[in-house]
Amino acid sequence: MFDQAAERYATFGLVAKLPSEIIDGIWGIIDDDLQGVVTLPRVLQFALIARHGQVTAVFDDQQGSIFEFDLPFNYDRAYPETIAVLDDGHYQTMMLLAELQA
User: Fold this and answer.
1) Cα 49 to Cα 42: distance, rounded to the nearest angstrom
2) Pair 100, 67: CB distance under 8 Å
3) What would the pLDDT profile of 15-73 be if each residue is shown by its tens digit?
4) Alpha-carbon distance 12 to 99, whole Å?
5) Cα(30)–Cα(17) distance, rounded to whole angstroms?
6) Contact 44, 35 (CB under 8 A)
7) Which Pfam families match (predicted)?
8) pTM here?
9) Are 31 and 4 in contact (CB under 8 A)?
């Protein structure tokens, strides 16, 4: 799951609400900080919170560990509170949480 060489996408809904730099930053978190450290399920969820005016991505591994990653980008209240990343075995897609549930 979440092979860095797989095809990766972001939905139009997410791209309309979140800058590409933050989307790329979350892909980097998956590849550089989570892969090989925790078991990654098919669906990952990240909460986006403000910390000192910057974006912090929060990941709960559902095994009792919470990881927080500070990104070097200004936070905007218009950003989605939670995003999802789905690995369906063929493609990896980052999306708004509401799009996953639809």
Assistant:
1) 23
2) no
3) 999 999 999 999 999 999 999 899 899 999 999 999 999 999 999 988 888 999 999 99
4) 10
5) 20
6) no
7) DUF960 (PF06124)
8) 0.93
9) yes
